Amino acid sequence: VEHAQVIHSAGSDLLSLINDILDISKIEEGKMDVMVDPIAPRELGDHFRRHFTHIAENRGVEFLIDLGEGLPEHFYTDRQRLEQIIKNLLSNALKFTEDGSVTLGIHRPGPEERVPGRLDRARTLKFAVTDTGVGIPEDKQKLIFEAFQQADGTTSRKYGGTGLGLTISRELARLLGGEISLHSDGPGTGATFMLYLPEGEA
Fold first, then answer.
1. Distance CA 188, CA 97 (A)
2. Which of 51, 105, 171, 178 is the most exposed, having the fewest neighbouring CB atoms within 10 Å of its CB?
3. What is the largest CA-CA distance in the chain?
């Protein structure tokens, strides 16, 4: 049974790596299609609550959903790609958080908040994944978005992963007309990854 579990785990890791590489190749070659779906913020929050609460509980971490004021009843983007980005961000946050909490927030950007220049502030949504985990040193904060890069050489040995999740998330965000940024005050302070997306239209 133990050998079968090892084989299953290795196969799953390999399949995940292959899928990640295929995604990057499709994006780089401009062959990834975008399908626009109407999405209700509350329903999206419920979707991730259902899928991640038990994972957080198994890690002894609290998982929270925070819906802000002034959200539209629906916004319009590619549901599959949006869910892929948020899933990557939540999976990372839970992986690097051993106690405390992980929060998915859906808000309008604040009046003083920097919004990517190509987006209209009044019609922009911010999806923020905030954790109380290990944090990210300032000199590594740009590096981790590059393919196969992680915050330091021990990361993959301790936490696993290929180092492709954030690269794919960044490219998918651009494909959807948005942008990902991050904020961390350094090691031990947790991190917040922010996805800014246009509200879109039907």
1. 10
2. 51
3. 56
Per-residue pLDDT of 91-147, as tens digits, reads 999 999 999 999 999 999 998 898 988 899 999 999 999 999 999 888 887 778 776
Strand ranges across the sheet with 191-198: 62-67, 101-107, 124-131, 191-198, 179-183
Contact 52, 90 (CB under 8 A): yes
Label residue 156 by pLDDT band (50, 70, 90): very low
Q: What are phi and psi of 138, to 5 degrees?
A: -55, -40
What sections of 29-133 are H helices per DSSP?
41-59, 79-95
Q: Which residue's entry shows tokens 């997306």? A: 197
Structure tokens at 12: 């799953």
Query: Per residue in 60-78, pLDDT tens?
Result: 999 999 999 999 999 999 9
C-alpha 34/C-alpha 180 separation (Å) is 18
How distant, in Å, are the alpha carbons of 108, 157, 173 from that of 124? 7, 38, 13
